[in-house]
């Protein structure tokens, strides 16, 4: 990455591979040391979450591997940051973090459910337009969705974790026969201490189940491939991905 990141402006957010537990239980030391973060400028006290403006977009970078509970610092910071956004200046509101909330692949299926439970209402309330995630080594774009239900006011979620890796692509989908994972296997111990939040759906076509039995309505397109994406903002109401 060095030839690229030494010449091209880049903003980063931590993922599971940056955890790197060290002596005295320190984590994310390399991540926090190697990059520059506008944390102080955006009112954050941590490199794990911050925000910045670029053109007509306000970007919110969230940390899935630090506390995201409503009682925690990150959530309180997020409330203040969202409330301060002037949509006349930055009409687009984009959020990003590593593990996706809306992914239909078997790999990492509903792994970040606890984060979704804590934060989704807040992002919905302030009208976040687009969410970018990685983690799952494939591409998937959602329809506008909120709480697993199609909603014209919800964000579009884009998983773009297919930039190349040594772990191969994600191919099986959780909604295919025999692929629905055991719910107890889905939490990640470094997300909220491995707490389980992925209960069966209580409404909709998958009511009573942990997985859908077909491609969910909120999933617009999914593709197992290597690649990257470009977001081009055309106007205050139109963008191309």
TrEMBL record:
Keywords: Glycoprotein, Signal. The keyword Ubl conjugation does not apply. Transmembrane segments: none annotated. It is an enzyme of class 3 (hydrolase). InterPro entries: Calcineurin-like_PHP, Metallo-depent_PP-like, MPP_PAP, PAPs-like. CDD domains: MPP_PAPs. Residues 6-139 form the Calcineurin-like phosphoesterase domain. The keyword Calcium does not apply. Pfam families: Metallophos. It catalyses: a phosphate monoester + H2O = an alcohol + phosphate. This is acid phosphatase. It comes from Stylosanthes scabra. The gene is PAP15_5.
């Amino acid at each position: 990455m060095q030839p690229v990141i030494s010449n091209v402006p880049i903003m980063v957010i931590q993922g599971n591979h940056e955890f790197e537990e060290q002596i005295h239980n320190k984590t994310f030391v390399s991540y926090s040391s190697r990059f520059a973060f506008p944390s102080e400028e955006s009112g954050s006290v941590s490199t794990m979450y911050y925000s910045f403006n670029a053109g007509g977009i306000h970007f919110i970078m969230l940390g899935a591997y630090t506390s995201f509970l409503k009682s925690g610092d990150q959530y309180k910071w997020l409330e203040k940051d969202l409330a301060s956004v002037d949509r006349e200046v930055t009409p687009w509101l984009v959020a990003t973090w590593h593990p996706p909330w809306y992914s239909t692949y078997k790999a990492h299926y509903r792994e970040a459910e606890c984060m979704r439970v804590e934060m989704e209402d807040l992002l919905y309330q302030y009208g976040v337009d687009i969410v970018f995630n990685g983690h799952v080594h494939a591409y998937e774009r959602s329809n506008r969705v909120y709480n697993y239900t199609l909603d014209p006011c919800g964000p579009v979620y884009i998983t773009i974790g297919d930039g190349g890796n040594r772990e191969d692509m994600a191919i099986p989908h959780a909604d295919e026969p025999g692929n629905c994972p055991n719910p107890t296997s889905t939490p990640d111990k470094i997300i909220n201490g491995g707490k389980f939040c992925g209960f069966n759906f209580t409404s909709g076509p998958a009511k009573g189940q942990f997985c859908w039995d077909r491609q969910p309505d909120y999933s617009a397109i999914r593709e197992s491939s290597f690649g990257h994406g470009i977001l081009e903002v055309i106007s205050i109401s139109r963008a191309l991905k």
